[in-house]
Write a structure and sequence with these properties.
Layout: H1 5-19, H2 21-24, E1 32-34, E2 44-54, E3 63-75, H3 80-92, E4 102-116, E5 122-135
Parallel strand pairs: 1-2
Antiparallel strand pairs: 2-3, 3-5, 4-5
Protein name: DUF3168 domain-containing protein
Organism: Fulvimarina uroteuthidis
């Protein structure tokens, strides 16, 4: 079976977030989705942009660096709810997620940016995730 590493990581992260009571007490599981813009339902976690880069570190070229962003949206001008939701996400991803079809070599929440929505009605954060995976042959 052919595996796209970014999509495999995306599914593993969603499973980990949905399995976390701390996350789902803040964001319903139905609102943790793959999407492209500001959601209609708040709060929400949008699994957003991704990128895969072949590291070229081994002869088989099976080591792939995966980048993935999570967009966290809350309603309200203050960012406190957004920051608490990010804390819950961080705790949920503290354990190595189980990624099907690839071997997870390294996993890192590499940073978070907290943004104010220009309209002033929403809190927004972007959680950046980086992983090194080996594609299983």
């Amino acid at each position: 079976m052919i595996v796209e590493p970014c999509f495999a990581l995306q599914k593993a992260i969603r499973r980990a977030l949905v399995a976390s009571e701390d996350v789902t007490s803040r964001v319903p599981a139905r609102s943790i989705i793959d999407g492209t813009r500001r959601p209609e339902d708040f709060p929400s976690i949008i699994i957003g942009e991704g990128q895969t880069v072949n590291e070229g570190l081994n002869y088989s070229r099976s080591l792939i660096r995966v980048f993935l962003d999570l967009h966290v949206w809350t309603k309200g001008e203050a960012l406190a709810d957004t920051k608490e939701t990010v804390a819950a996400i961080t705790a949920a991803l503290d354990e190595e997620p189980i990624v099907e079809g690839v071997e997870l070599v390294d996993f890192l929440l590499s940073g978070t940016r907290f943004l104010r929505d220009p309209v002033g009605l929403y809190g927004h954060a972007i959680v950046s995730i980086e992983a090194l995976v080996e594609v299983l042959q």
